[in-house]
Amino acid sequence: MAHIPRTSALTRSLTRSLASLNHAPPAGKSPTAIVMLNMGGPSTVPETYDFLRNLFSDGDLIPLPFQSVLAPLIARRRTPQIEQQYTDIGGGSPILRYTNIQGERMAALLDELSPETAPHKHYVAFRYARPLTDETARQMKEDGVKRAVAFTQYPQYSCSTTGSSLNELYRRGKAGEVGDVEWSVIDRWGTHSGFVEAVAQNIERALAKFPESTRSDVVLLFSAHSLPMSVVNRGDPYVLEVSASVSAVMDRLGHSNPYRLVWQSQVGPSAWMGMQTGEALKGLARLGRKQVVLVPIAFTSDHIETLYELDLEYAKEAKEHGVDVHRAESLNDSPVFIRALADLAAAHLKEVSLGRAGYASTQMGLRCPGCTNATCGQQKAWFARGGR
Ligand SMILES: C=CC1=C(C)c2cc3[nH]c(cc4nc(cc5[nH]c(cc1n2)c(C)c5CCC(=O)O)C(CCC(=O)O)=C4C)c(C)c3C=C
Ligand SMILES: [Fe+2]
Ligand SMILES: [Fe+2]
């Protein structure tokens, strides 16, 4: 059975002191790296095939027999349909643009909030689109980074999303591609008050589009990317954590409206977490609940799931059923959200440097009870030691 070593606060702080003695760069030269982990998306339509090939090659997301042979074939078959979707949303995914805006503004705020660890520099490490982790690793090495925070941009943890990004980072780090870096991890933050506030404000703006007389009857339909039941059933924490986000947002809104959490973007024939968002909209229409705000809750910038699936597909279907739907905006360049990212990173840097928190959270140390992926265990142990 895999064993995850527990490191005491004293050992951690000794390791850190030794590390900084051995590797301290000349003062003020080496930036504290905040590495923003996400799946990425094709910035332009012709990048779609590479994105899909990388995605279907990831055994942590979609385990396939003969993966290296099947992945390019499935990607090739799926490319025309997905290319059309990216064309319809304006010619590509905006995720890199928004991640860079969020990262630059977060780093500037961090320099004020945490002058001891300044200067801060954001790096983007995408799992399936450029800049991929290997490219980012090379850049960090070139910049002489000695201290880095792996900051997932998925608010809620799933082994298929954040877990996959951390496994990739672990492989690159272990192979020495990033250089000699002290790592720590922000692995989930779905109930952070700044995140909750930013989502709540966007919901309030969407609610304001309905007549005041019926506003409190509007149904808030929180929609998250679904998960295959095989992943849910091995003990993945994502469904619980998305539910916790919804609950926190509803508390902040004072339970002003009725709400449900539903699931979107199932792919392939296997069983996925439900109820599906599209079915929920139709069901609400049948029940006469014809005013709805759709709320993306598990992804922080726009992507095909919001711009295509929610705005084009579901909104059209809903209109056909006489439902008046508005979507809460994605967080994108929300200043409240960017401040939340900076607050999270500043608190994390402080807690770790004071030895009040480990390099990775207690919750991250626990593998899913049904996990059979050996890399997950190695990755967790590696990050718990600060990437050493
Ligand atoms: C929190 C968000 C996401 C989870 C959880 C997630 C799990 C998951 N996804 C697939 C398969 C596919 N996802 C695809 C695209 C895609 N997935 C997410 C987010 C989550 N996925 C996003 C934001 C996107 C779109 C990216 C964009 O730029 O718009 C795709 C490719 C598109 C398609 O072919 O339909 C696949 C395939 C699985 C199997 C899974 C859980 C195991
Ligand atoms: Fe796992
Ligand atoms: Fe997905």
Automatic annotation (TrEMBL):
Principal location listed in the UniProt entry: mitochondrion
CDD domains: Ferrochelatase_C (cd00419), Ferrochelatase_N (cd03411)
Protein's recorded name: Ferrochelatase
The reaction(s) this protein catalyses: heme b + 2 H(+) = protoporphyrin IX + Fe(2+)
Family: Belongs to the ferrochelatase family.
InterPro entries, A to Z: Ferrochelatase, Ferrochelatase_AS, Ferrochelatase_C, Ferrochelatase_N
Annotated GO MF terms: ferrochelatase activity
Its membrane topology: Peripheral membrane protein
Organism in which the protein naturally occurs: Fibroporia radiculosa
Entries under HAMAP family matching the protein: Ferrochelatase (MF_00323)
Pathway(s) annotated for this protein in UniProt: Porphyrin-containing compound metabolism; protoheme biosynthesis; protoheme from protoporphyrin-IX: step 1/1
